[in-house]
Amino acid sequence: MSFHLPPPDTGALAARLLAWYDRHRRHLPWRMPPGVRSDPYLVWVSEVMLQQVRVETVARYYGPFVERWPTVGALAAAPLEEVLRAWSGLGRYARAHNLHASARLVVERHGGRVPEDEAALLALPGVGPYTAAAILAIGFGRGGSAVPVDGNIERVVARLFALGWDTGSPASRRRAELRRLAASLAPQARPGDHAQALMDLGATICIPNGRPRCGACPVADACAARAAGVAETLALGPKRAPKPKRFAAAFWVSRPRDGAVLMRRRPARGLLGGTLEPPSTEWRPGRAWRMAEAVSSGAAPVGAAWRRLRGRVRHALSDFEVEFAVMAAADPRRLPGAGEDGAVWVPREALEGEALSTMSRKLVRHALAAEGRGGQRGAAAAVPPGRSRSAAPPTSARNASSRLAPETPQTSPRSSNAARQPNSASAHSTLPATGTAPDGTAAAAPLSGRAMGMA
Ligand code: SF4
């Protein structure tokens, strides 16, 4: 739906927006003062980190990252493993792979200087039209067609021009129209600040979910949605379908002699590529794993007496949500050596600095919290040692399920992390056991010092 109102005076609108930005901008670690161009490499790093991650989370990662690798050349020279470690907890690890690979290409093809050319930027892995436009506008001060349009800017522009979501029109056409309208607003002077002003307006004033703060908006009198009385009701996109759910069981194995934790590394490419995680069963749709079934599936990494930890761990990935039950090994037998069957033993004190995804951190915190409580009262050690590798559930294991503690999912409010781009929000939550401290919901919350100590 659109309302055919006179187009705004774009020059006056841009001037007011820049004046507002000068006074009310967000102070973010990757930002330069108004009127000062940023280093294109730093813009690139920040924009890649910000994809679908909250600004507050990125603010914690950005400084240490660019301090360690202040130039493209430094990043290109770094081992991928170290980059992944520094990325640990930011999620979507393909971004770190691509950033690192792109840095090497920039060194090879462009002498280590970020190219000031859209086609050359788009040829780099992981650099799409938005990131290329942000680098050109904010890092090089380029105007014209280099207008970055993220979710915040889409929303602001849609409201300014009262361009509502039309179910009969392809999303790609609407997006192209929003880009065209955004470009029509961009001034020749300070195009980078203008883009960041629109981002900030969308993040702080023209906010989503039908709650724009029009009374505080610097461009309210040029806004078509407000003039038409639809600022709060204008449809901005299709209703999002809930993510499909998968279920898994993770296995927590702590080496008795030193407390090191058994992990596996995921394949370098693909989902959570290259990160470490506790071994787990298949992530299947449909139904949760019962303990005896999980242990006897062949996925348990060692023979042990297993017990199911109370509570479950949930994590939302881009395309689905996964819910884990966590099984802890008591008296593990025949522990694999490092590298054997993909085993990686991580000392407790090294867990914090390892390349663990946010999902793995949740699992680790969940298990450490259980250890800190001195075991899971009521969660019976139901499957005896020696059963974990059998292909089919032996009778004793099947019978063991009747001795398990109830596996009724706990319920608790979910904590949601609104992503920077509203169409791709990510959410993280953990369902704690009754009486258990929540395992933390911030995407990059550190593993607590207490929990990191030896149990
Ligand atoms: S007037 Fe309201 S709806 Fe329009 S741009 Fe400003 S905050 Fe958004």
From TrEMBL:
Residues 49-204 form the HhH-GPD domain. Its EC number is 3.2.2.31. The keyword Kinase does not apply. Residues 378-403, 432-446 have a biased composition (Low complexity). Residues 408-431 have a biased composition (Polar residues). InterPro entries: DNA_glycosylase, Endonuclease-III-like_CS2, HhH-GPD_domain, HhH_base_excis_C, HhH_motif, MIG/MutY, MutY_C, NUDIX_hydrolase-like_dom_sf. Keywords: 4Fe-4S, DNA damage, DNA repair, Glycosidase, Hydrolase, Iron, Iron-sulfur, Metal-binding. It catalyses: Hydrolyzes free adenine bases from 7,8-dihydro-8-oxoguanine:adenine mismatched double-stranded DNA, leaving an apurinic site. The keyword Transmembrane does not apply. Adenine glycosylase active on G-A mispairs. MutY also corrects error-prone DNA synthesis past GO lesions which are due to the oxidatively damaged form of guanine: 7,8-dihydro-8-oxoguanine (8-oxo-dGTP). Belongs to the Nth/MutY family. This is Adenine DNA glycosylase. It comes from Craurococcus roseus.
